[in-house]
Amino acid sequence: MGNALKAGIVGYGYMGQIRKTVIEEHPNLELSAICDANLLLADSDFGCPIFTDYRDILEKDVDIVFVCTPNAFSPEIVISSLNQGKHVFCEKPPGRSIDDIRDIIEAEKANTPAKLMFGFNHRYHPCVNEAKVLVDSGRYGKILSLRGVYGKSGGLGFEDSWRNKKEISGGGILLDQGIHMMDLFRLFCGDFQEVKGFVTNSYWNIDMEDNAFAMLRNEQGQVATLHSSATLWKHTFRLEVFMEQGYFVISGLLSKTGSYGRETLVVGKRQFEDETFALGNPREEVTYFDRDLSWITEVSDFVDCIQNDKCVTNSSSTDALKVMELIGRIYGDDPKYKVERFGGGGE
Amino acid sequence: MKTTVQYDDIREFEFKPGTTLSSYLQLTRDDVKSYFLSGSSLVDCSCPACLSHERSEAFSKFGLNYQECSNCQTLYVSPRPDENAIDEYYRKSKAREFWNQHLLTETEAKRREKLFKPRVQWIIETVEEYFPSAQRFSSINSVHPPFLQELVESDYFKKIRIVTPRADLSHVNCEKDGVQVVNDAIGAFSNPTDAVTLFEVIDRLSDVNAFAGALDKMLVPGGLCFLTTISISGFDLQVLWDKSNSIFPPDRMNVLSTEGLMLLFERHGFECIELSTPGLLDVQIVANAYKENASIEIPRFVRYLMEQRDNDTLQTFQEFLQMNRLSSFARAVFQKK
Ligand SMILES: [Zn+2]
Fold first, then answer.
1. pLDDT given for residue B112 in this prediction
2. Position B100 in a domain
3. Which CATH class is domain A5-121+296-316?
4. How many angstroms separate the CA atoms of B158 and B156, rounded?
5. Which chain A residues in 38-77 lie under 8 Å from chain B, judged by CB atoms?
6. Which residues of chain A are within 8 Å of residue B6 when distances are taken between CB atoms?
7. Does domain A122-292+325-341 have CATH number 3.30.360.10?
8. Which of A45, A313, B131, B244 has CB atoms 3.0–4.6 Å from B240's, for a disulfide?
9. pTM (two decimals)
10. How confident is the model at residue A1, as a pLDDT?
């Protein structure tokens, strides 16, 4: 473990626990400290020092800080960590507002060579990876449009979760989950200049949106549509990529519970020149994925950036800023639903 | 790890015309007798996949005995001829000559379009994703000139080698295409390779374990091994068992289960990237066997399926087999760690 980077985790909830497993499995990382305001220190055996105040971790000999706290707390912890010269891996979203990510970027600029990456782990899911390779190969021509649905069923305790307390999360389902789909839109098509949105609260008794609908268009004329929802009643992840010579359907997601279904990539080839096949019902190839390496590969990417002094190009602060700007514009585009923290449009 | 399912409309007879195939089987039966059963010594062996000695007698084909491994359910011939005897067989037997002259040429155009074009694409797409810097490609025991032509035309790999070809490559202009033919045995082949293909190769090896070890030495770290084989985990082989026309020596001396295949490669330090059984023909093969001989012993449920249900159900059933790695045609990609 001579060259291993010492890692500390701030926030030991759902994500903090996933990060702990990843750190322990990673050959170039060593878990050095965990911090959570609610940890019952006496009862726990984590195999590393435990703190309840993140500032104590920053005093320690820690190289990377994994920030896994609710949105309201992340920016301050990220900025403090960067100011102490630590590398930072921060879960999405990068705070509650565009101002949050802008502040973070200022701290990042002031503290080079400290590296900063955000947890847009969907980029690293095997089905997304494979679709991206196929798109980049150029064999299917250009992307014409994208259609994304990402949603969950809410459920018991949903209304009480911190994710649905505006002062802590800053946004509803769009900021919590839709952000991943928006990030994938950018991964496939780059930046979008035009944004239209409807943001609704149609079912849940929360003070934020439980549904968001968006249409985006970029300068190349590529259009992406999003439905982000907490009222789908069935956990759903589906991204369709329509190309000149075919299409890809990415659906299901490998997850702890498997509730999003088997992770699947459908590849269809446009075939209407071939008269032996029925029109509009082309041959498809379906690939099922069994192993989710997204957590480990994204962290490996980050470790590689640190150890070999490379720029963070995947899930960078620029990616975080751009996606937050898009989300801000979706909120801002619906006059019936202005979220103050986003400043009514983010432009 | 992943598995791929394909929806296509290939029919069995397009690749293996019935009369030609039965002539080939008859020739093989005769050749097995003269090459392996008279005089040459057979050696006992353990399971080629998991090395277990626990096994039960399955059946005998062309005078050689198939064993079923009690650990991984792989089906294999033991006792069996050694590698030299096998090599001799594939260079000189009448069956092989017939294969090269008839089975390959009669179906060549169709094979190229339906089998090898997609197969080359499969290789390129996988390389692009898992080992994009790969440039040196080797095909072992290639018996598929159309594959070679397809690969050369793709212009993807800088260096293409055919190692110990067991095929007539006379109508392929290797020199013009920059293809190097290496006649060394795989164990002696030391040039580092980034990607290697084994199409129906492990099925007919005498010493699978030694071969996997040699493969491990030949591939660079990160290097990819592409493999196709028939698998005893597949529906038609399980249902037809000794009556299956696909199980016969020496072409199918090792019929590994999918579990056995994993055990074999993991033992030699490979990681499985893909294990799929994208076969299209299991149900059709059983249906045809039943049509030809209604007294053939098959499970009641399968007979009911064949007699009472329509093509849509059979098609859905075939898709189910693919989705769950239960078709008898398997393809896999292993990456050297
Ligand atoms: Zn075995």
1. 83
2. yes
3. alpha beta
4. 7
5. none
6. 283, 285-286
7. yes
8. B244
9. 0.86
10. 44
